[in-house]
């Protein structure tokens, strides 16, 4: 906490056993860990500069846990660790230390590693959070979609989101009208565009016709409560439809209401703000745009005998 709040390394001090150079004996000293390195006091627990003797600088040293310190090195306990200089490869240059218990050893090793790598660890922790606040993550597919206008002599990128949405809806309406016109031209002379438009959805795999709310709930549950959707006739409000959608393992129902636009019957999920000539266009739109829904439409719900 001291390091995170002030970016300064806390001073760690306490007693440790140290192996004397070129000897098998161990001696207990009072050690002090500071930003400048590791020291031990040659006079009790005094931390005066004249009593502190330098042991290691962690800018060019690493700390390691020692296994079987008692058996291999004659340490007073098995909680050994060592400081090794990166410039020397000889075992004689190892600074062998030993703590009285595991928590004390963990404290010293963690403090030494924090002294050496603490700032880098702190920056690694902070940077992703700063990036998330600066620029929210978007999926690759969303980043690759660019709205274009080809109506003029030269094409242009539509940067205004409202204009892009308006163009997308208008283009969908135009395409659906042409599709309905082609279908009506192959049918009987009395078949109107609206009547053809009103039956296009019947053959779609996501349309489940006369399915009640409870049956839709049960059908989606049988799919495993994954992100699926289906469209059905509304049981409570004739001539309307319902979009049943599962998201985050919760099933929600959205009513699709008819909207009259200059004598033309359209459909809308958001009180007429976004309008569609038929249910196919509505589904295709919300497969690409979340709109008022909690998520985009992903997988249609397969028909299962209830």
Outline the secondary-structure elements.
Blueprint: H1 2-6, E1 12-19, E2 26-34, E3 37-41, E4 52-56, E5 61-66, H2 69-73, E6 80-85, E7 95-98, H3 102-134, H4 140-144, E8 148-149, E9 156-157, H5 161-186, H6 193-199, H7 213-222, E10 228-233, E11 241-247, E12 250-261, E13 264-268, E14 275-276, H8 279-288, E15 299-300
Parallel strand pairs: 10-15
Antiparallel strand pairs: 1-2, 1-7, 2-3, 3-4, 5-6, 6-7, 8-9, 10-11, 11-12, 12-13, 13-14
Helix pairs in contact: 5-6
InterPro entries: BPS-dom (IPR015042), GRB/APBB1IP (IPR039664), PH-like_dom_sf (IPR011993), PH_APBB1IP (IPR039665), PH_domain (IPR001849), SH2 (IPR000980), SH2_dom_sf (IPR036860)
Keywords: Phosphoprotein, SH2 domain
Organism: Seriola lalandi dorsalis
How many helices? The count is 8
Q: What gap, in angstroms, lies between the N and C termini?
A: 58 Å
CATH topology of the domain at 2-112: PH-domain like
Low-confidence spans: 137-143, 186-193
Classified in CATH, the superfamily of the domain at 2-112 is Pleckstrin-homology domain (PH domain)/Phosphotyrosine-binding domain (PTB)
Shape: elongated
Helix content: 25-40%
What is the CATH class of the domain at 2-112?
Mainly Beta
Mean pLDDT over the full residue set: 79
- Strand line-up across the major sheet: 4-3-2-1-7-6-5
Q: Which class best fits the helix and strand makeup?
A: alpha+beta
Number of strands: 15
Rg, Å, rounded: 36 Å
């Amino acid at each position: 906490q001291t390091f995170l709040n002030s970016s300064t390394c806390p001073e760690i001090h306490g007693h440790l056993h140290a192996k004397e150079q070129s000897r098998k004996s161990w001696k207990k000293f009072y050690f002090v860990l500071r930003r400048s390195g590791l020291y031990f006091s040659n006079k009790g627990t005094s931390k005066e500069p004249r009593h502190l003797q330098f042991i290691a600088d962690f800018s060019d040293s690493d700390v390691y846990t020692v296994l079987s310190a008692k058996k291999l090195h004659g340490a007073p306990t098995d909680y050994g660790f060592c400081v090794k200089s990166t410039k020397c490869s000889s075992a004689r240059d190892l600074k062998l230390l030993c703590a009285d218990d595991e928590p004390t050893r963990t404290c010293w090793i963690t403090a030494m590693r924090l002294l050496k790598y603490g700032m880098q660890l702190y920056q690694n922790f902070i940077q992703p959070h700063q990036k998330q606040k600066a620029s929210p993550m978007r999926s690759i597919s969303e980043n690759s979609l660019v709205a274009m206008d080809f109506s003029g002599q030269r094409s242009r990128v539509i940067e205004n989101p409202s204009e892009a949405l308006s163009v997308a809806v208008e283009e969908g309406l135009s395409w659906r009208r042409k599709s309905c016109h082609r279908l009506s031209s192959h049918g009987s002379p009395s078949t109107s565009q609206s009547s053809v438009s009103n039956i296009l959805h019947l053959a779609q795999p996501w349309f489940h016709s006369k399915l009640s709310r409870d049956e839709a709930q049960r059908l989606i549950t049988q799919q495993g409560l994954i992100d699926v959707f289906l469209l059905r006739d509304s049981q409570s409000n004739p001539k309307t439809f319902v979009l049943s959608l599962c998201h985050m393992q919760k099933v929600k129902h959205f009513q699709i209401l008819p909207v009259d636009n200059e004598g033309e019957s359209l459909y809308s999920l958001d009180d007429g703000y976004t309008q569609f000539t038929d249910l196919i266009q509505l589904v295709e739109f919300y497969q690409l745009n979340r709109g008022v829904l909690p998520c985009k439409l992903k997988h249609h719900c397969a028909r299962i005998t209830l």
